[in-house]
Write a structure and sequence with these properties.
By secondary structure, this protein is mostly helical. Helices cover 74% and strands 0% of the residues. It folds into 2 domains: 249 residues, no CATH class; 207 residues, no CATH class. Keywords: Membrane, Transmembrane, Transmembrane helix.
Length: 551
Amino acid sequence: MSRPPVPGFFRHLLLLWGLRLHLGLNQGPGKSRLLAVAAFVGSSAPGVLLGLSFFKLMRMGAIAHSNVWPYFILNLLCFVTAATWVTWPLLSAGVDDHSELSRYAAFPISPFRLLIGSTVASLFEPRALVFYAPLTGAALGYASRHRLAAPWLAVVLYVLFALFCAAWSRVGLYTVINVLREKHSARIMGGGLLAFLVAASFIPPIDTSWLTSMGEAGVSALDMSLIINAAVALSQVPPGYFGDGLGQLAHGRVGIALLEAAGLLFFTGVGMAVAYALLLRFHRQAGRAGGTQKDGGDRDPFATTRTRFDTLVRREVLDLWRNPRARLLAAVPFILAILLKLLSGRDLFVFLLGNSADAWVMGGLSIYGAVVIASTFSQNTFAYDGHGFAVFLAAPLDLADVLRAKNRVQGVAALGMAVLVGVFYRVYFGAGTLVDFLCAMVAVAAVVPMLLAAGNFLSLYFPVKFHASLKRRDKIPLTASMLGILAASVGCMPFGHALRMAGKAGPGWHSVAFIAGGAVLYFTVYRAVRPLAMRLLDQRREVVLRAVTRE
């Protein structure tokens, strides 16, 4: 009997797309495929709106007839798009969305082919379509107003730019995965964050004095040399080769555009080489049995708990503390705050929002820190600790206590994360009043109950499997993700409404009281629906168990 032929590259590519679609839809008995497909496609809908908006922007008379603004906008979008692609694995902690790294380890596919197939497949994910939609719309708008010398070369530049972003996004993804697999990942991330903070302190902030010099004259009062220098600087880094290449084609300089296409191809190759080295390292680490961890003597972490519920709470605290993804999520708001100061982002918010700027920024960072902690684990509350749910079913305890313990730990962790971010903002920026801080904290207190309430039901109706070792994880379906985003949006409404009412004058104690009223309302809703979630948990215990332990 002859061996079956090894699948070709395109067959492997179809298998990768099929795997991602299967995981994204989270198919199973009783699931609506039509609804899942609609959510899968609908998640890329914002890209259409973004693309159309920037298409119209590039066709506006003031922009289209300018000799500077089109290049600046194109090059800026190139830089922002590439930066978003590369940093997305860190910002979203989406390091477990690409489980083919482990699923295909035993399959007849080489690491190099897996890298190529994974990179190409990532170009057509819904979030990728959203990422490069603004640049796509701006490029089409620019091409519609300027005659390009070689339109085919513009298409080549666009494809090379997309491949460049996809290649370096693999570098970011594999770097984060390799760090999280290290035994001392917490120390590595903590040391990296500290080094980043120290290095950023030596970099002078961007001069934003031009914001206050515009006055009532608006953009026309700007010194255009600032915009010209920025456009030139952005065009000289690899992501800007695409925008500058379009400009060169508009002026008939096909040779220069060809050189920039070659530059994009070269840096794409560099990114793929680095990603390949990181992928090989990941496979070597995944194939090792790993060193045995030393126990801290005979110390029992549950020796001092007085009740069964206290034991459950302590167990959840330990699981969350030891989860590498939680460590990554905890670092992101602080990195964003450091970048915000480095780029003088607060000055821009002060210019736009006046005395409300610190409340908006501090509240936004605190809410983000709370949301990524609460939603990430509450929406998969029965599986982020691996097969722990099977242990709960075998233990002589009430599952309602398990749910209450998980909610308490996740809620306190989210609130604690928000407090740390708020204090860090106040110390690091040296700005923000007590009222601003209280608005941010009360806003988090309003968001967390909604996230926990939604997470309880999403965990029951969309249970997914998760391996804490990061070897594989079934992706949370887009339907559940959209519902989670909706719950977070509802939770943020009191904060947003209060600050909009405050305007540029800044929030007052009445703003704190209004947001606190919303927090009390949402907490009441959470307490009202929690008994229903507990009853459903007892009814669906076998369904959840099969979902989180399936192979």
